[in-house]
Amino acid sequence: MRLLLDTHALIWALLGSGELIDRVRRMLRDPSNEIYVSAASAWEIAVKYRIGKLPEAKDVALHLAAHIRKARFASLPISLDHALAAGALPGPHRDPFDRMLIAQARLENLAVVTIDPVFGAYEVSVVW
After folding, report:
1. Which of 2, 4, 11, 87 lies in the 20 to 30 Å Cα band around 108?
2. 95 CB neighbour count, 10 Å cutoff
3. d(CA 62, CA 50)
4. 19-37: pLDDT as tens digits
5. CATH, domain range 2-127
6. How would residue 11 be classed by pLDDT, with cut points 50, 70 and 90?
């Protein structure tokens, strides 16, 4: 499977949080799966850590690239096509980070690992 981690799933995976369900944990350890981390998640983590919303993720915020390499996840940059698709998404959902993940999942044919129900409204495959 080709999976794109929502930001909360990424943080939980990197911190070893009990919030991450066993099924997802197994999928992340399975070497046959391709696990992607969006540049949008890096941006979201940096912003939320800076404003005090993610104090528990200090090490993740400061050393995200190293954590991603250690976990053997792949980085997914934001392309012009991703940005245009995110900006063109319909609907009332206004979170720019989620909109980017939705656009990337759709364009790159990735399933999103998330507990957030909003992703299902945008015709992307969701894993949880």
Report:
1. 11
2. 12
3. 11
4. 999 999 999 999 999 999 9
5. 3.40.50.1010
6. very high
